[in-house]
Amino acid sequence: MRILAVSGSLRAASSNTLLLRAAARLAPPDCALELFEGIGALPHFNPDIEDVPHAAVAHWRAAVDRADGLLFSTPEYAHSIPGTLKNALDWLVGGIEIVGKPVAILHASPLSIYSGPALEEVLRAISADFRPEAAIAVNLRGRIPEGFDPATDPACAAPIRAGLGRLAAAIRARRAGIAE
């Protein structure tokens, strides 16, 4: 199964992206987790140009469409999600690419108390199947020395594996047509 990982951060040294890269190595054996790295290339959402072909938008929608589920990790800015991530999700509003797909959130900081609910609300509004039981909480606040690998740290790896296992179970149930 394919899980698309999406970081809400554009920073090169993002802790959210670091966690998603670790998640790719910790995914269940039957899962391929792919990090989407193009949200910064998306134009500002504008309904007037929604039907005008744009390569970055087509790439984004196709990646979401191919995925069986999605995993988001995002920083918190001004009590919400970054505008770049919201913009990417706005590009999915008029389509069916994310509708009904199981999605989970990987939290990198216990101090981010607003971004999770804000992202959940947007995901529900675009008809994604938000899975709260698959939420992953890892505390990376102030703990990222050079060369740190969350995939090899038991305090990080264990919750990532557990959350990915629950997300994979939701994807398998959806594929089998089983309502949970």
**Helix-and-strand structural type:** alpha/beta
Query: How many DSSP E strands?
Result: 6
**Portion of residues in helices?**
25-40%
Quote the distance from N terminus to C terminus: 19 Å
Shape: globular
Description:
The chain is α/β, with parallel strands linked by helices and 180 residues long. Helices cover 37% and strands 14% of the residues. It is built from 5 helices and 6 strands. It has helices at residues 15-26, 55-66, 83-90, 115-125, 154-176; strands spanning 2-7, 32-36, 69-73, 102-107, 129-130, 136-137. Strands 1, 2, 3, 4, 5 and 6 form a 6-stranded parallel sheet that branches. The longest helix is centred in the last third of the chain and has 23 residues, at 154-176. The model has no long low-confidence stretch (mean pLDDT 94).
Task: Name the descriptors.
180 residues; alpha/beta; 6-stranded parallel sheet; 6 strands; 14% strand; globular
List the helices and strands and how they pair.
Elements: E1 2-7, H1 15-26, E2 32-36, H2 55-66, E3 69-73, H3 83-90, E4 102-107, H4 115-125, E5 129-130, E6 136-137, H5 154-176
Structure, briefly:
By secondary structure, this protein is α/β, with parallel strands linked by helices. The protein is built from five helices and six strands; from the N terminus they run E-H-E-H-E-H-E-H-E-E-H.
